[in-house]
Amino acid sequence: MADTRTTEKIAQAHKACLDGVYTINSVIATPADSKFGLTDNERKAKVSRTVGYLKYQKTFTDWTDEDFTVIDKAIADADAFTGD
């Protein structure tokens, strides 16, 4: 993949990935049918959509020195949660 993102776009994408980590962690930690009203299937769907974004972002080859430790953990946790 030929990547031509600016440094600013790379930083924005990394921040968006970290936001996705927060979403995944929050949804996994919140029980089904809690006050937020998500069923187990809705939780899995939300996590699946979010982890898809993280996996897509990781396909870019123009990352520089961004730390992906928490992103990689969120991907693994999401895959375990959804059964993928």
Keywords:
84 residues; mainly alpha
Summed up, what is this model?
With 84 residues, the chain is mostly helical. It has helices spanning 7-29, 40-58, 69-82. The protein starts with 6 loop residues before the first helix and ends with a helix.
Which structural class is indicated by helix and strand composition?
mainly alpha
Q: N-to-C terminal Cα separation, in Å?
A: 25 Å
Q: DSSP strand (E) fraction?
A: under 5%
What is the string of helix and strand elements?
A: HHH
Mean pLDDT: 92
Major sheet description = none
Q: How many beta-strand segments?
A: 0
Overall, the morphology is: elongated
The residue fraction in helices comes out at: 55-70%
Q: Report the C-alpha radius of gyration, rounded.
A: 14 Å
Number of helices: 3
Q: List low-confidence stretches.
A: none
Written overview of the protein:
This protein is mostly helical and 84 residues long. The chain contains three helices and no strands. The protein has helices spanning 7-29, 40-58, 69-82. Helix 1 packs antiparallel against helix 2, helix 1 packs across helix 3 (69-82) and helix 2 (40-58) runs antiparallel to helix 3 (69-82). The two termini are 25 Å apart. The relative contact order is 0.21.
Question: How is the secondary structure organized here?
Answer:
Layout: H1 7-29, H2 40-58, H3 69-82
